[in-house]
Amino acid sequence: MSLQLESVTVTVPDGRERLTILNDVSLSVEPGEVVALVGPSGSGKSTVVAVAALLLRPDSGTVTVAGIDAGNASARQRTTIRRDHIGVVYQSANLVPSLTALEQVELVAHIDGHLDRKARARAEELLAGVGLGDRLDSRPGELSGGERQRVGIARALMNSPEVLLADEPTAALDADRGAMVMDLLVEQATNAGASTLIVTHVPDQVRADRQITLDHARIIERTTTVVA
Length: 228
Known about the structure:
The longest helix has 18 residues, at 175-192. The protein is an alpha/beta fold.
């Protein structure tokens, strides 16, 4: 499997004591599978994404990404694993204001040191796949909220990640745009065969294979039927 969290616990300082953000959380996502992670605000959903993205090291437990045990990896190794194997779609697209849509996606290849003709063709193909083939030269200020988020999806897929993580990617969009972006995200992730974990406050928007419910830092429910 491409993503596995096993008995993950995360705590943070809280005065003289520590507050538990995740308590013995275990989950896995298979290649090509889409899993929706739901739960009330403050339940720990975004923390799961941070741990899975190797941005946060848990107090205990193991994290495996694309068959790699990242538990004892150094900070540099974790950055390499994230760059080579993980794509992340955030609540806000977090685009660079001065870059065009094409340059935003190409930036991934540039950071990796492989910005060439093949990379440019892939960036153009990804943007066409999310319906922005005619907006390659548009900057963020010229794009709608939904279009900016679609650029974010293309950027997350640029390195052909085995693991795709999305943290409430439609939170800043209205219902119609949110549903469209979520459908597009799931379609692109499935086509890429990525292990996809989507945090959402609107589970009805996600055509997921499974749904996991998190509450009070623990997994309280797993639904194995398809979420419509």
